[in-house]
Amino acid sequence: MDFKQFRYFVAVADELHMGRAAEKIGVAQPALSQQIKLLEHQLKTPLFYREKRGIRLTEAGEEFLAHARAALKQANMAMERGRRAGAGEVGRLKFGYVPSVVYCPVFRRILMDFRKTHPDVDVSFFAAHPNDLVRDLEQDLIDVAIVRAPLLRMSSELTVEAVSSERLVVAMPHTHRLANMGVIAPEALANEDITTTLDLDGIGLAGILSTMFGEAGIPVKISRRTAVASEMTALVACGFGIAVVPASLGKTPHEGVVVRPLDSEVETSIVLIRRTNEKRAVPRAFLESHRRIVAEASLEKADAGKRNPPLVA
After folding, report:
1. What are the extents of the domains in the chain?
2. What CA–CA distance (Å, rounded) separates 241 from 167?
3. In the record, which residues are listed under signal peptide (predicted)?
4. Among 8, 12, 13, 312, which has the highest number of CB atoms less than 10 A from its own CB?
């Protein structure tokens, strides 16, 4: 007994006519009749009364019909569920990120797109430092992670893909000596009291600042570090020095804080980390969404650059 027989039986029960049922499901009438007889043989009871005026269901046929319909419905649901799972449309995604990237427009677009196109995927969020997220990926505790580069060396089991990049800005009290300047030169920050992130040396935002100031020979004083990047501007508002932050983070300054562009070509890069040979459907579906949005954002950025070329002195 198989679901083909169930489908044949339901078609005959609906039409109460072998010829119409055969035409409906696209099989030859003799083959349909044979399958119905085989089903009755397996059940050891007739399912139809065969009369001169036509056919009608027996009591056993009436009872069997309800369960046959339910079985076909469940089978169709199982097949659809399996198809959707294979396409990454249902399931779970364990998503890691560093807190500062939530302010990046491209990051938000990626999540919004995935939520819209995969509403039945359960997404769990894990905020942590870059090194912790790399470790979690290696230990299969999360599926993908979006962080700020640079990163420490990773195993070949992990691969990095670009997400976006941002210029840096300086957040300072409105009473600061540099607050009235339109653009801040890096050397103007020499010996300033700077707050940055609690990253290990050489990685993340702290790594970018260390490299930028170190290569330029600019002495700076990293006075404090915070685990959450958004807290840097809050500390500035409380009178704790200044902060060099990604442009997206500087768009929502606290009261009493002003933000000025940093006159530097140095940018902070946001990257996605994934398993090199990812085979699971949901993470692969997220990667497709991520790549599409990143490509769209890159084209938009290029078009904006053509419309608004930089001024040449």
Report:
1. 3-86, 91-163+269-303, 165-267
2. 20
3. none
4. 12
Distance, in Å, from the CA atom of 172 to the CA atom of 280, rounded to the nearest integer, reads 46
Contact 285, 153 (CB under 8 A): no
**pLDDT tens by residue, 110-131:** 999 999 999 999 999 999 988 8
Given the candidates 1.10.10.10, 1.10.3720.10, 3.10.450.50, 3.30.450.20, the CATH classification of the domain at 3-86 is 1.10.10.10
The class of domain 165-267 in CATH terms is alpha beta
Which residue, among 33, 60, 30, 55, has the nearest Cα to 45 in the 3D structure?
60
pLDDT per residue over 222-244, tens digit each? 888 887 777 888 999 999 999 99
Do 3-86 and 91-163+269-303 have matching folds? no
Placement of tokens 């009369």 in the chain: 51
> Helix, strand, or coil here: 188?
helix
User: For domain 91-163+269-303, which CATH number applies: 1.10.10.10, 3.30.360.10, 3.40.50.10260, 3.40.190.10?
Assistant: 3.40.190.10
From residue 32, give the alpha-carbon distance in Å to each of 6, 12, 121, 162.
11, 9, 41, 58
What pLDDT does 216 receive? 87
Lowest mean pLDDT among 37-41, 122-126, 170-174, 308-312: 308-312
Contacts of 11 by beta carbon, 8 Å cutoff, 6+ apart: 21, 24, 25, 32
Q: What's the rounded Cα separation, in Å, for the pair 306 and 274? A: 33
* Residues with Cβ within 8 Å of residue 84, at least 6 apart in sequence: 90, 120
pLDDT in tens, 246-296: 999 888 778 899 999 999 988 889 999 999 999 999 999 999 999 999 999
Alpha helices in the chain (DSSP H): 3-15, 18-25, 29-43, 59-86, 105-117, 130-138, 204-216, 231-237, 281-307
